[in-house]
Amino acid sequence: MFVEDGKAVKRTNDLVEKGDMLVSGFIGAEGKEQTVAAKASIIGEIWYTSSVTLPYENEFTTITGEQKNKRLIQIGNWDIPFWNFSKPDYETYEIFERETNFSIFGYRLPVQIRTVEQRETFGFSRTYTKDEAVEVAKKHAREELRGKLPDDAEIKTEHILQEHVENDTVSLKIHYQVLEEIAQEKPIIQGD
């Protein structure tokens, strides 16, 4: 805890709850208090628990990079193709659609151009051993937690609380200790 302006209400290593006041904007002796904008950097150790499940065998689909584009003129609810009339010769593919937004003076025109991208896909399966599944599950849980944390947060420790294998699926419950900035600004509301 580093207090630049204000008065520390809590001390280092105190247990605090979300919403507790850590640094006060009132300084000085009682009766002669002054109000200042409290400014502090407070790094707290936060505990997170994550649950993740991963089957030993996983099916994946990936896009190969091959694609055909079909262009259509859309008049109202009617689609009139004008480029690439044929279906792709791929076994499996996904369709992605884009539509222009022609407008004049803020009014959408009834004529639009639609592009239909037909991208080839390739499906494959991957089978993990128990140890590989645990490592991949830990990695997924860590990445999911990282996505929820601020950029400057640091994962200090990671412990597996529970590991359960059933029906070729591994389930983990993981405990994380994370160091992150916990200071939040709150306005000083003065009474009568």
Helix content: under 10%
Strand content: over 45%
The SSE order reads EEEEEEEEEEEEEHEE
State the distance separating the first and last CA atoms: 32 Å
Q: Which structural class is indicated by helix and strand composition?
A: mainly beta
Q: Report the mean per-residue pLDDT as an integer.
A: 84
The coarse silhouette is flat
Produce a short descriptive summary.
The protein is mainly beta and 192 residues long. It has one helix at residues 130-148, and strands spanning 2-5, 7-8, 23-24, 26-27, 34-35, 39-41, 43-55, 57-75, 78-83, 93-99, 103-104, 107-108, 111-127, 154-166, 169-181.
Question: Can you describe this structure?
Answer:
There is one protein chain. With 192 residues, this protein is mostly beta strands. It contains one helix and 15 strands, in the order βββββββββββββαββ. It has a domain of 55 residues. Strand 8 and strand 9 form a beta hairpin. The two termini are 32 Å apart.
SSE blueprint and pairings:
Blueprint: E1 2-5, E2 7-8, E3 23-24, E4 26-27, E5 34-35, E6 39-41, E7 43-55, E8 57-75, E9 78-83, E10 93-99, E11 103-104, E12 107-108, E13 111-127, H1 130-148, E14 154-166, E15 169-181
Antiparallel strand pairs: 1-6, 2-3, 4-5, 7-15, 8-9, 8-13, 10-13, 11-12, 14-15
Characteristic terms for this protein:
single chain; 192 residues; mainly beta; 4-stranded antiparallel beta sheet; 3-stranded antiparallel beta sheet; 1 helix; 10% helix
